[in-house]
Specification:
Largest sheet: 6 strands, antiparallel
Radius of gyration: 15 Å
Strand content: 35-45%
């Protein structure tokens, strides 16, 4: 499994991956296709950010949380046939309850 470092979070986005092609085959381009909120499920959480004084700031989300994250962030990776994105914790905007 992937293990995030520092204040990074790994999200499973395979279930929520936005279609960039319409059902009729039209390919969406430009910024309009990327403006919708983006969702993911937290699969791994790093230990947190270490401050200059050595204190560790814990990450507020936990494994299994469905979250909304900033649409222009992170690094997408494919691992064992699933799509993930690794994002900084501060780019997670909300937990969906």
């Amino acid at each position: 499994m992937l293990r995030p470092l520092e204040n990074r979070v790994i999200l499973d986005i395979s279930k929520y991956k936005k279609e960039e092609t319409t059902s009729s085959g039209i390919i969406l381009t430009g910024e309009s296709s990327k403006e919708a909120p983006v969702y993911g499920v937290v699969v791994a959480v790093g230990p947190g950010r270490t401050l200059d004084n050595g204190e560790v700031v814990k990450i507020e989300v936990k494994e299994g949380d469905k979250v909304v994250y900033h649409s222009f962030t992170g690094t997408e990776v494919e691992y064992e046939g699933k799509e993930y994105i690794i994002v900084p914790a501060q780019d997670i905007l909300a937990v969906v309850e």
